[in-house]
């Protein structure tokens, strides 16, 4: 009896998150990070005269480097507090996670600390990527065997199944 009264009191006084405001922050800051990446891509293509494929690679590496440096300096955490989920745009968010994991384990040494902590995080991501690739590959194979998909290069199939080439 006392436990339920206590839980009701806690629920009445807990801070309720403002979902609309949080979504707006995430959309805005995620868009800013993507806009910055697009600006880097434009710079590599137009100022450095790189082809699109090379410019994309340079942009990705630059974004990873900047996110890693900002995480190491403690600035990316502040960006994350303001930008909410928008700060975890895939490339920069993953770089932030990996750098944070590495920094967490630095006191334990390179192999047992840094490498172990980084692998705990990256290992889960790799497992999910491999398993989802396997599942989508099976779906693609069965659709092809059933004759539903005659030509694998068809744009609709690529849109639905993702580019698995």
Give the integer mean of the pLDDT values.
83
Distance between the terminal alpha carbons, to the nearest Å? 60 Å
Categorize the overall geometry: extended
Summed up, the helix count is 7
Number of strands: 0
Radius of gyration: 22 Å
Unreliable spans are none
Structural class: mainly alpha
Explain the overall architecture.
78% of the residues lie in helices and 0% in strands. The protein is mostly helical and 165 residues long. It contains 7 helices and no strands. 12% of the residues are buried.
Main features:
165 residues, mainly alpha, 2 domains, 7 helices
Q: How does the SSE layout of this entry go?
A:
Layout lengths: L1 H12 L5 H28 L5 H21 L2 H9 L6 H15 L5 H36 L9 H7 L4
Helix pairs in contact: 2-3, 3-5, 5-6
Task: Describe this structure in a few short sentences.
The protein has 165 residues and is an all-alpha fold. The protein contains seven helices and no strands. 78% of the residues lie in helices and 0% in strands.
């Amino acid at each position: 009896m006392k436990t339920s009264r206590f839980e009701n009191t806690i629920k009445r006084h807990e801070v309720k998150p403002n979902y609309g405001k949080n979504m707006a922050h995430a959309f805005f800051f995620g868009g800013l990070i993507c806009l910055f990446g697009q600006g880097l891509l434009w710079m590599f293509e137009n100022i450095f005269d790189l082809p699109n494929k090379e410019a994309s690679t340079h942009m990705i590496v630059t974004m990873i480097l900047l996110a890693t440096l900002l995480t190491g300096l403690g600035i990316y955490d502040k960006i994350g507090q303001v930008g909410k989920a928008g700060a975890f745009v895939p490339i920069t968010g993953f770089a932030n996670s990996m750098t944070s994991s590495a920094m967490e384990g630095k006191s334990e040494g390179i192999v047992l600390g840094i490498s172990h902590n980084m692998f705990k995080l990256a290992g889960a991501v790799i497992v999910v990527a491999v398993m989802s690739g396997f599942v989508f590959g099976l779906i693609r194979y069965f659709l092809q065997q059933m004759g539903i998909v005659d030509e694998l290069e068809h744009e609709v199939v690529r849109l639905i199944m993702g580019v698995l080439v």
